[in-house]
Amino acid sequence: MIYRAVFHIDMDEVKTFGLALANAGNLLRAIPEKHYDVVMVYNGPAVQLLQAEQCAAFREEIWNLQQARVAFKVCRNALNRFNVDPDSLIEGCEIVPAGIVALIELQQDGYAYIKP
Predict the structure, then answer these.
(1) Relative to the CA of 94, which of 27, 77, 85, 101 has its CA 20 to 30 Å away?
(2) Nearest of 58, 71, 59 to residue 28 by alpha carbon
């Protein structure tokens, strides 16, 4: 069995951002010997949270998740809408054309939808 999960972060709220990162970390710690595929999708105003300055306090936690192969997908539409320069994002982010489409595709592929 492969544990597939997609975390959906869409609000520019530091508390929710931290909760999502903690939830993903807790999931990985709960299934250390298992196979997993975990994706975090950021759209709407939440894309602002992944700017290097905005997420400095969470950088180590993010890095640990990225090292554990957690994917960070960021909506290009939201980057444009909220005037966020893709170059200002932390390393390791994958820009997708539309976050909502990524969410639909992941759910159709059997990923559990998690909304912190």
Answers:
(1) 27
(2) 71
